[in-house]
Structure formats: C-alpha cells, structure tokens
Write a structure and sequence with these properties.
Blueprint: H1 3-6, E1 9-14, H2 21-32, E2 36-39, H3 43-63, H4 72-81, H5 85-97, E3 100-103, H6 107-114, H7 117-121, H8 124-131, H9 138-153, H10 167-189, E4 196-201, H11 214-217, E5 224-227
Parallel strand pairs: 1-4, 1-5, 2-3, 2-4
Length: 231
C-alpha cells in the first residue's frame, strides 16, 4: 500500500486515547509514505502537555489508590494526559523519513477543553464517579467506537439525531471544520504534489446532514478515507 503510487491523499480516522495507537499508526505511516502529515492536534494542546503532563499524572496517582489505577476509566484519563499518540507516531515517522508534520487542530478549542482538567477532571469526587462506571478496557472502548462509526457509514448522510447532535452542535462543528480545512489547505498549498495523509477523529470522516465535516470538504482532491483499525 504505497501512497505515492496508489493515491496522493488519505484521511485516516482514528479513535483518540487508543492504548495501541502508536503500534497501529506508525507501521501504517511507513507503508503509506506520506511527505506531509496533518494532525487533528492543536499547538496549544501540545504546549499544555509539555508543561503540565508530568504534574497532572502525578496528581492522578496521588488521588487514585494503586489497586484502582488499572480501571478502564483511569487508563483513559492517563492516556488523555499524555502526549497524543497520533503526534508520537507522526514524529517517529518524520524522524525516519524527513516528512513534515503540521498541527491543524484548534488551539482556542483546546484551551477551553483543557482549562477544566486540574480542577474538574482530577478531583476526588469526579474520579470516584468515573471509578463507579463499568470497568471496560480502553481497547474494548476503542473497538466499540470504530464499530459504531462503521455502522453509521451505512446511513450516510447521517441524521444528526443518530449522534445526539442538535442545531448548536452542527453550527459549532461547521465553524470548527472550516478552520481545520483552511489550515490544511494552507499546508497543502506550500507543498504541491506531495503525498499527504491527514490523521483525525473518526467522526470527522463521516457525512452528516446539516454540516460539512472534514472529509466531505476535500471532495475536490479525491481523498481516500479509511479507519485506522482496518488498514
């Protein structure tokens, strides 16, 4: 499967916080051989983790007893506090190949989401509530989301109700995807004719009524879409 021979553009849908993410994504990048990788990761989210990840992981361990740290929800929180596996895999591949990695996520959105980590997510009461949930392994949760999105493909264009999405969600999604599209097209314009792979959340590869998500926005480039777990 050679990106340079079979297709010039791929969008790879991933499930975030996959404990096997690097082991899945790095070999795929080696097979596709993209010269440009765009990631649904924002510069702010990387900076935040560089500055705070070690402290936040230590705080998590201070609150959660050792015998409960393997609970699926705690594993998921730990994965969220670390550098995203998508970036880790892309940087390993770039170091080997000389490929360019561009972060195209929305820093303003990341700033809003991450503002609550220490004082809302990592509190004794909230972590206790998470520990009270069923103990599904992160691998099982990842598998279920891939399967759900595959089922949704059969309903395209997907009614927003299937995602529990209302008018406000559709409006925000439209604005968010437009921003990501602009940043990707800017990166592509400076590197014409290079093989390109975009790595982002599986939901952004779906077609939904009432909002143009990312894959649909690049129909002019004949981008091939696929989920990471099927490649």
């Amino acid at each position: 499967m050679d990106c340079q021979r079979e297709t010039q553009a791929w969008m790879i849908g991933v499930v975030h916080r996959d404990p096997d993410g690097v082991a899945r994504l790095l070999p795929l990048l080696r097979r596709l051989s993209p010269a440009l990788i765009t990631l649904e990761v924002s510069p702010y989210s990387v900076e935040y983790r560089q500055r705070h990840s070690e402290y936040l992981l230590r705080r998590l361990d201070e609150i959660v007893p050792p015998d409960q740290r393997d609970h699926g929800e705690m594993q998921s929180v730990r994965e969220m506090l670390q550098m995203p596996y998508e970036l880790r895999a892309a940087e390993l591949y770039a170091a080997e190949s000389g490929a360019t990695v561009e972060l195209v996520g929305d820093s303003d959105e990341s700033r809003e989401l991450l503002a609550s980590v220490e004082f809302e997510l990592l509190t004794p009461d909230n972590l206790a509530a998470l520990l009270a949930r069923p103990d599904f392994s992160p691998k099982e949760s990842v598998r279920r989301l891939y399967e759900r999105c595959r089922r949704l493909l059969a309903s395209e264009p997907i009614p927003p109700a299937l995602l529990g999405a209302g008018a406000d969600w559709l409006s925000r999604a439209e604005a968010r995807e437009a921003g990501v599209e602009r940043r990707i097209r800017s990166a592509l314009a400076s590197r014409p004719h290079q093989c390109w792979a975009h790595i982002g959340g599986v939901l952004h590869l779906l077609r939904i009524r009432g909002a143009r998500l990312l894959w649909e926005r690049f129909s002019d480039l004949h981008v091939r879409r696929a989920f990471l777990d099927e490649l």
